Amino acid sequence: MKLLGLKLYNFRPFYGEHGLSFAKTADHNITVIHGNNGSGKTALLNAFTWALYERFTAALASPDQLVNRRALAEAADREAVDCWVEVGFDHDGKQYRVRRSCQATKRGEAVTQSASEVAMQFVGDDGRWSTLPASKNPDDVVGRMLPKSLHQYFFFDGERIEQLVRTDNRAEIAEATQKLLGVKVLDNAIKHLNAARKTLEDELSGIGDAETKSLLAQRRDKEATHDALETRQAEIDQELAHQATLKQEYSLRLRESGEFESLQRRMDQLTEQEKELRDRLQDAKKVLKQAISNRGYTVFLPSVIDKFRALVQEREQRGELPADVKPRFVQDLLDLERCICGMALHPGTPHRQAVEAWLHKSGLAEVESTIYRLEAWANQQSDQQEDFWREVDQEQATINHCKQKLSQIETDLEDLRDQLRTSPREDIRQLQERIDEVDCKSEGLILEKGRNQERIALLGNEITQLRKQVRDRKQNQSKQQLAVKRIEAAQEAIDRLKELKQNQDLLFRQELQDTLTQLYSDISFKAYIPRISEKYELNLVERVGNQEVLVGASTGENQILSLSFIGSVVERIRQWSENKLVMGPDSSTFPLVMDSPFGSLDEIYRRQVSKLLPGLADQLIVMASPTQWRGEVEEEMLPRVGREYVLVYNSPRDDLQGDTMMRLGRETYPLIRQSPDEFEFTEIVEVHRYG
């Protein structure tokens, strides 16, 4: 998961809409957010955790009061006030947006806040935004990328991070860590398989039928909704065509602006390259799916072919293959009651019994012919398997290449648009703003169309299912027989997963211990040694003679231990993900978002941690007060800062004393200023960075 941006609307101290974009390149992966205590740094941290997980940190006061007070005060009685947070991020080359929202309503002096709702959109292979299908839960999708139980590892209050190693938190840490490492995935798989086995056993008792009349009524209702959505889709297509015409007109006027003609030409080239790459990406995925569908079975054949060959060899050793004597020839001799040597074969004689024995040794011609054909087919399968893997590797390489190029093109296009947005010419800025407005409106229409399309598909499946239920209500016997076979398969899978869990857990924990020891020693000047138990409990020990003794670490030392632990987990997960060994979260890229990470550290540790943090994760977002940032922290981190913001607190107090800070020796940004009215609120101002 790589964070792209954060938008807030009437969330806590942030009145109206605010937005931030985050640094994400390898050389400049740090975003710094400056603000005094009480200006909204903790609220920003909780904006992430609320949007992604509906969780809050312990430092956030009154988590049931999320809607901005000024927005509530300005609303009429019984008028609902919206509040939302949207997090944009990239995962595995695909962009996502998660928006969690709620409303508050003022009724006299009382304010009631609604339950939150969450929605997710993503960019498909065709480059268009789509809404997550109704059959999928956004929380589950985010959980696969970065599980909820682990969010405190990556979104945390730096002054309280040492609580990760407190005794009363160790059980939670052990469970969360095992989930991140994939061990918890195996535990859950075993648990779910057991539950599935029980469900299948219950299914054997019989399957109940619904009333036909009720099923038909449900189908009629769903068909009416289906038709209404189809009508709306046609209206959206017309509006999208109109917006495309407007964008073409604005883009043409930009090209005619003279000095920006080359920039617009470059944007056209990049846009065309983006379209070609997305077409290649879709084609490669189609080829890959087709290869798996047509020849994926060859991967599972070697063991079956080995058994077949063993059976053939066994028959050959017994002299049954090839058949030296045909059954028809033996039967003819018995019918004539005379052997080819002239000996009489009368019933009951030893000579006749000897010839009759050949009936059991001779094989059928059809069976022999079939076996030889199967042998020839089996010999071809090894070549087909090699061809299958070669094609899979080739298409997967194409997919990865397309994703990397698309990511770079999107970054380049955004940089070019930023040049137009910040142009010294007002007409150019206005044209780009109109293009942005068209893109925003088109994006909203596309999202609505995507939501409708998902609903149409879902309704279509439900309608088909209702028809099938009416038609197949009496087919219980075959389902019960299938359940028996599934029970046996579930038990075999459980046994295999238990063995895999034991092996994976041992190997990962050994590698994690080595990485943790190295990271901790890089920061701390003390001879303490971090240890991870079999249950992934985290401790700090000191070697006394031949024994290791637990030490009473200070708050600062526990902070370092916790940061080192997070860094080691991220590093090992990244390595295992690259080698396809981990079954934890579906990611090898992790951000760190920290509020005040330097408060309890002395000067030496502050400098060491400042050196370590940019390497702990692919992306770092730091919220710090001016006193925490200045000095050794700024010296170590500033070269890798790509984005920088200031939280400007607007205070209604008349006796306000201003507080400012200087950035890059060029401009001064206020941290506190006089509010224009009787309300307090916070604004987010981006710091202008110069090359």
What does this structure look like?
The chain has 691 residues and is of the alpha/beta class. Among the domains are: 1-146 and 602-691, 3-Layer(aba) Sandwich (Rossmann fold); 147-209 and 498-584, no CATH class. Helix content is 55%, strand content 18%. It has 19 helices and 18 strands. It has helices at residues 41-53, 69-74, 138-145, 151-154, 170-181, 183-203, 212-255, 261-295, 302-317, 327-336, 350-356, 358-361, 365-421, 426-471, 476-523, 555-578, 603-616, 626-629, 632-637, and strands at residues 2-11, 14-21, 30-34, 80-91, 94-107, 110-113, 117-123, 129-131, 155-157, 528-532, 538-544, 547-550, 591-595, 619-624, 641-651, 659-663, 667-674, 681-686. Strands 3, 9, 13, 14, 15, 16, 17 and 18 form an eight-stranded mixed beta sheet that branches. Strands 1, 2, 4, 5, 6, 7 and 8 form a seven-stranded antiparallel beta sheet that branches. Strands 10-11-12 form a three-stranded antiparallel beta sheet. Helix 6 runs antiparallel to helix 15, helix 7 runs antiparallel to helix 14 (426-471) and helix 16 packs parallel to helix 17. It is globular, with a radius of gyration of 34 Å.
